[in-house]
Design a protein that fits this description.
Order of helices and strands: HHHHEEEEEEEEHEEEEEHEHEHEHE
Number of helices: 9
CATH superfamily of the largest domain: Exo-inulinase, domain 1
Shape: globular
Distance between the termini: 77 Å
Structural class: alpha+beta
CATH topology of the largest domain: Jelly Rolls
Number of domains: 3
Radius of gyration: 25 Å
Helix content: 25-40%
CATH class of the largest domain: Mainly Beta
């Protein structure tokens, strides 16, 4: 009886807050469905959400009579994945929100339409491993603030940013006609304790040593925006009058594409002269064949701004890998497009495009046999790195057999650990060069 009285009081509170005039069912539904479309109603929306949470909890308690259910559920959520737990956590996606759900490992097969292949030569890599937790990262600049953090939900170091300013690559990038950009991002709650989204700009700067202000900074570029309600959209701008009329914009509608707070997303961008493609997880969200008219721009800066997020594993690489020639003619293919989480040997789904191309070469040349060899950087113990590299080589072999139907008798696997570096292990970029998978023709 007490629970029912509480439920009735919550409904009355919601009505008095939103001015529903007794039309509870109809207007509540309308308000919930449209609340994110008007920032001016955010405070009211917060009251609605809080009230609905109380109603839902009260209803469950009334039916099941379990006064401790909420506490038990929270305890189970906080258990997490012990393999991903980072000791000495500095910060979390949002302080006090330790129950954010972790995403399940997506299977490689679900990426069957994922055709992204990363560039062959890494020219910029950032995982913030060289930066101390709590510091602003050394390779970046800002007109606001940011800090390196670790979390109990996602391994590694992340740059955390909350504000209305921007962070950008300190050095000017030298980008050719064809290149790829990748990063992992986690939208988090902003200053008002709500998801605020974020923006990413790829553009040609006016000032190599300072911030380019304005809604259309520099000489022009491409912007990827995640709105505060999660919807992704894009736009281009050009200050050159001959190019300005070519500006385009658009969005990707549908709940399947909306980003959510405290969830990790892998973003991949593929630029080929005038064409730009953008992928989120396994989906190709935007494919713009004439995004950059010829002669209009020379991109040289990557910038993140205006929102709240954590970001890591930023990788910029150039040159499409000629897998067929390197494997069949040169006898050795070095791949940087096969990904693993830190200290793990499970092939990440975004490796699908690369593995698909390698499998195609093997399928078309049935007499070719290869050895798959994993390599690591020098972080960690030698013996552990050797074992990890062997497991990664075996994992790649398993995926080629299981997912792409390559005969297992044609494949061998091994690992060299950190014993055969191709670069000094003195920076994140060089370490990224040493973390590789080699395919050696037998």
């Amino acid at each position: 009886m007490k629970t029912l009285i509480k439920l009735f009081a919550v409904v009355i509170l919601i009505c008095s807050t939103t001015g529903l005039d007794g039309q509870i069912k109809i207007d509540l539904k309308r308000k919930i469905n449209t609340q994110l479309n008007n920032r001016a109603n955010q405070r009211t929306d917060q009251a609605i959400n809080k009230g609905l949470d109380g109603v839902e909890k009260g209803a469950k308690d009334a039916v099941k009579g379990d006064k401790n259910k909420d506490q038990n559920q929270k305890g189970q959520q906080n258990k997490g994945d012990s393999q991903d737990q980072e000791p000495g956590t500095k910060d979390e996606p949002d302080k006090g929100d330790k129950s954010a759900p972790q995403q399940e490992q997506t299977s490689l097969e679900s990426y069957s339409k994922y055709d992204f292949i990363p560039g062959e030569k890494v020219i910029f890599y950032e995982d913030f491993s060289q930066d101390a937790v709590g510091d602003f990262p050394a390779l970046w600049n800002t007109n606001g603030s940011a800090e390196v953090v670790t979390t109990n939900l996602f391994p590694g170091h992340w740059m955390k940013f909350i504000g209305r300013e921007a962070v950008w690559t300190d050095a000017v990038l030298k980008l050719p006609d064809n290149y790829t950009i990748e990063y992992d991002v986690v939208p988090i709650k902003g200053e008002e304790n709500n998801m605020t989204g974020y923006s990413m700009r790829l553009f040609q700067c006016n000032n190599a040593k300072a911030f380019d202000a304005g809604s259309a900074p520099g000489k022009g570029g491409f912007i990827f925006i995640v709105e505060y309600y999660g919807t992704p959209r894009y736009g281009t701008w050009f200050l050159n009058s001959e190019c300005s009329q070519s500006s385009i914009s658009g969005s990707k509608d549908g709940d399947a594409f909306k980003q959510k707070v405290d969830q990790k997303y892998h973003i991949a961008i593929w630029v080929q002269k005038s064409r730009i493609r953008l992928y989120q997880e396994q989906a190709k969200m935007f494919d713009l064949p004439k995004a950059f008219p010829a002669g209009c721009l020379n991109m040289d800066r990557l910038r993140f701004e205006y929102g709240a997020y954590m970001i890591t594993n930023i990788r910029i690489a150039v040159g499409a890998p000629d897998m067929r020639n390197k494997l069949l003619t040169e006898g050795k293919l070095v791949s940087y497009g096969i990904y693993f989480d830190v200290n793990k040997d499970v092939v990440k789904p975004e490796s699908y495009g690369t593995l698909k191309e390698i499998a195609a070469v093997l399928t078309e040349n049935p007499d070719v046999k290869v050895k798959i060899v994993g390599h690591t950087d020098s972080d960690g113990a030698d013996a552990a790195n050797l074992e990890l590299s062997k497991k990664r080589g075996a994992a790649v072999k398993n995926e080629l057999v299981k997912t792409f139907g390559i005969d297992a008798s044609r494949l061998e696997s091994d690992g060299m650990g950190e014993t055969q570096p191709v670069a000094t292990n003195d920076s994140p970029a060089n370490k990224a060069l040493n973390r590789r998978v080699e395919f050696i023709k037998l």
